[in-house]
Amino acid sequence: MAGSSSHFKYDVFLSFRGYTRLRFIDTLYHALINKRIVTPWGKTIDKIVEEVSKRLPPLPLYVDLGLLDDFSFVIEELYDANNDVVSIIGMGGSGKTTLAQKIYKNKEVKGFFPCRGWSHVSKDYKPREVFLRLLHSLMKSTSTYENLEMEDLKKIVSNYLKGRKYLIVLDDMWEPEVWDDLKAAFPESNGRKILITSRNEEVANYTSSRPYKLPLLDKRESWELFCKKVFPGKECPFDLEPLGRSIVESCGGLPLAIVAIAGVVAKKKRSEREWQGVKECIHWHLTRDMTKVMDVLKLSYDSLSEELKPCFRYLGIYPEDFKIPTTELIQLWMAEGFIKESGLPNSPEPEVVGEEYFKELVDRNMVLVSRQRSDGGVKECLIHDLFRDLCIILSKADNFFEVCTGSNIHTLSNPLRLSLLCSEVSYMSSIETNQSSTRSLFFFAGEDSSHDSLKYFQSVQVLHLGGQAWFLRVPSNFQAMIFLKYLKITITTLTSEVTEAPQCIWSLSNLETMDTRGWQTSYIPKEFWKLKRLRHVYILSSDGASLPTEENGEDSRTKTIMWNLQTLSGVDFDTPTAFLFREGRFCNLKKLNLWLNPEREKHSLWHELLFSLQHLVSLHKLKLNCCPSNLSIHAKWFPLNLAKITLRAFGEMDCSSMKALGQFPNLQVLKLLGGTIPDPLDCATGDFPKLQVFKMMQVQVQSWTLEKGAMPRLRYLLIWDCIGLCQLPEQLWSLTTLAKVRVTDPSEELRNSLQDVKVKHNCDLKIAHSIGIALRRRMLKDTLK
Predict the structure, then answer these.
(1) 490-535 pLDDT tens trace
(2) Stretch 652-673: mean pLDDT
(3) What is the helix (H) or strand (E) element at residue 697, kind and residue range?
(4) How far apart are alpha carbons 709 and 698 in whole angstroms?
(5) Which of 224, 287, 256, 326 is CA-nearest to residue 92?
(6) What are phi and psi of 721, to 5 degrees?
(7) Among candidates 528, 441, 455, which has minimal Cα distance to 486?
(8) Which of 28, 138, 270, 292 is the most buried (most CB within 10 A)?
(9) Which residues partner with 675 through β-bridges?
(10) For residue 68, how many other CB atoms are within 10 A of its CB?
């Protein structure tokens, strides 16, 4: 009876979503298309298909990829009360994770399983990291659990899931025995479901799960995926179709291989000669031998320009499934010398060239976009684990880099670049010679880092201490690393104590990027002015760190201009800093993140500080933190080139300040985070002419009006926990550019008013609620008193 009940629920689910009809229409459509080729009434068929399509829900992505039947089967297994554990089994690159993500994010699945968690397991399995990822997806905030041991984390996960109806996805499990470490964290209940993806069928047998073997794409599905990537929205030219189909057939139905080949073909001229060259490079037929899969991926690599090849290989340094910050990646490429300045007048900055390099890798389907910025750019990226394997294979052959996982410690050579994914002490105890050839050193793991951990690496130019790498003390030999161009310190201690940044780092004259936000910086010495190559500076300072006003040992009347500096983040916005802005010391500064301490600066001087910003003529992005309690802004105080402004903890802002912000001619992104707007927020015709993104988070605002012609280019709006806001402007829904509106933790009045809104122009409106809203609002009110 339980089984039939489950099938009944599933049939209702399919009928509601229209998947059964979609499958029928899919078959009908291709039958009609085949008929269209041999009959003269093709236009009539097109009209039939168009009319039928209008009556169906939009085709989701997994239909396009040929995953419709797979989706249906796995959903049915998850809804079956007799199955606790379900597994998706398939070879690398076959779409296991893609299918699991579609299921995990599906609206009906979210409703059926109110509690959901996701964790990537990976080949380099670390149980502690798996539980941390699960907690992050379940509870969003995990800062209080970061330092706990694995068993403690397991208990927290188990207690959180107890009594709940939940779905847990364990992605990319390699070995069956991993289940023994994890299963105790998932308490048995009527609502428990575990979804596992793996390449190893033994995993399914060991976990007693119902396996679904993910098939490869058939010829039709393969061709459709290829055309979607090479000719988006268009059809393949008739004369190229036979050759194109021959290329696709060489991929054997493996989605990753098809997408990779499509990335190569898309960059070629649309001629038989060019496509024939691609076909001749594919000299194999796909089998289950994964070494042969690498051939088609290597073809993508071989088609890259000589400038792009090292940039792509560099991605393999990061751990599997690691979300790589795009800005960091480009800065590393620069430090490594992959992006060279041309020296020609009016030539683009290296950062701009790096963005073009990155975009081409995305266009070629070799890099995946993981997270986007509010302005539409890419914030984080990652690569498929097979592409990462290719990077490691290619790099080991010529010593470009090596990855130390613990199991291969004794087989490592003396690589140019070294990525440590194991305990640093384990590696250090295994080496006996000076690692003089190593130019770049990455720490992504290790809890036992010692005081002298860097003594073997005096010649490094890149030092990246991030991920789960903790340094109990500052390494003693920083001052000897005179070749250092890139320094990043993100996590330095397992305790609550914050490590003070050593003063010796300010004597490293070759530094281009300094990111020491894992340390506390309370003082910036005068040696700062000697770092003429600095391009990007990120520091953390709780007590305030001011920029020094005089150069050591030089005539104080001589101005030192930091020509190369483009990013300055974390310094105090005080009178000395404002003086330096007025003197034009940072004429090429593009990104600025300042902290204003109201207790340190007199109220009468605040406007003078803000007025100094107008001298930063190249500034594009500005963030002001801990602003005074009654912030007043005038348009003439800020440079006109500003495209993004973030005001955080801004106290109280009057209506004239919002009016001033609306006059910035190039402002595209505005974020207001934590503060009060006591007057009505009135946006008049012509205000915010280029604004595309507007975010208000934890802002007390009573009303908001929008006249016709205001914010004419707005495409994304976020309203998050804005106390007192009862409705959104009626004119908002008439904006033709508005694509997405997110309202999180609205007041009851605002939530009710949005129920009757009729969105236009396919705008995506979603209302959400987060955990702990009452507590957070109470804390916010206390803060803003």
Answers:
(1) 765 444 456 788 888 999 999 999 999 888 888 899 999 999 999 9
(2) 90
(3) strand 693-701
(4) 27
(5) 256
(6) 55, 50
(7) 441
(8) 138
(9) 699
(10) 18
